[in-house]
Amino acid sequence: MEKQSTWPSRTALAAGVAAGLIAAAAAVVVGPQPIRTADDQPTGSPAVSDVLSQSAPAAAHHLSAFTISDDNVTFGGLGADENDEFEIGSITKTFTAELLQNAIDDGDLTLDTTVGEVIDVGDSPVGTVTLEELANHTSGLPRLGNSSIPRKLGTLFLGSNPYADTTRQDVIDAAAAADLKDRGERHYSNLGFALLGQVIAESQGTSYEQLLNDEILQPLGMSHTYLAVPGSTDSESPRGLLANGRESQPWEMDGDAPAGAIRSTAADMSLYAQHLLDTGIPDFTWVTDRPEGVAWHNGGTGGFKSMLVLDPEAGTAAYVVNDSTAKVDKLGLTLLEETNR
């Protein structure tokens, strides 16, 4: 008979570590700060701010929004206006999609271009993944490159930045080491989109940040929008709120930046939305499971939530961003519905 070890199993050790981390996190959560929507501080047009006040989700905080109809932009907010800066989270992915569309239009890339044609990943399975698969979340790559328990708990309870130390090479290495599970089925992947942005930039011989500035931000006059790379924010940069009411760290990113590092204002985002209405939305990345013809993408970081929704046929759009963890997807759709009436 095999001798039974007196050492605790790896599972027991992992459970013990997790329990300790949860206990520490719980101590931080004690004494949560209440979050109240700033509905007594409307800004801009009542046509927008009234909708925000009436339909904002519980625990929303400061809100900034706009609607577009017939090329006219209407701004509104609660405790914030169109010039206030917010993290837009995964709406950044639509900018990456725009860069991909530009490269396709210029003949530099195609949707069938594979990762391995642009970046050397050896004989890794990810080398055969196409840019279309990355852009539509069907590559089989996992949601995150690093999803350790300590990192998750730090983000949830302490407001730490889960992407702070991930480099471009880290993204490539994580993708190269990953198993492609359920390839062909849609499974949302931040890692896949970070890789997509790095592949596009590599194909153009520049950095993702420079490409974003050269091809979108500067041409559209989005002068108050920037990619929050490491060191780009300071103590004066706006912070969002965790669910417990405490401030979250800014989500600065390096390797993962193409998946969610943009900070912007509603004024600048209205320029981007009008550009999309004028030139068309790429046939990838955007979600179209809402009413026919409507495309949308939301975003979320440690302390911000956002929603951009467009109806190209009607020539209308709506955008809303909130500096707490309360989701604003439905609120963005409500703003569009009111605009289309």
Describe this entry's structure for a reader.
Helices cover 38% and strands 13% of the residues. It has 341 residues and is α+β, with helices and mostly antiparallel strands. The protein has one domain (42-340): Beta-lactamase, CATH 3.40.710.10. Helix 3 packs parallel to helix 8. The termini are far apart. Residues 79-321 form the Beta-lactamase-related domain. It holds the Pfam family Beta-lactamase.
Helix amount: 25-40%
**Could you say which structural class the secondary elements and strand pairing correspond to?**
alpha+beta
What number is the mean pLDDT? 90
Indicate how many domains the architecture comprises: 1
- H/E series, N to C? HEHEEEHHHHHHHEHEHEEEH
How is the topology of this model organized?
Blueprint: H1 10-29, E1 42-44, H2 46-55, E2 63-69, E3 72-78, E4 86-87, H3 92-105, H4 115-118, H5 131-135, H6 149-158, H7 168-177, H8 190-204, H9 208-220, E5 226-227, H10 257-260, E6 262-264, H11 266-279, E7 295-300, E8 305-311, E9 316-322, H12 329-340
Antiparallel strand pairs: 1-3, 2-3, 2-9, 4-6, 5-6, 7-8, 8-9
Helix pairs in contact: 1-6, 3-8, 3-9, 7-8
Keywords:
6-stranded antiparallel beta sheet, Beta-lactam/transpept-like, 341 residues, signal, Beta-lactam-related, disordered N terminus, alpha+beta, AmpC-like, 3-stranded antiparallel beta sheet, Beta-lactamase
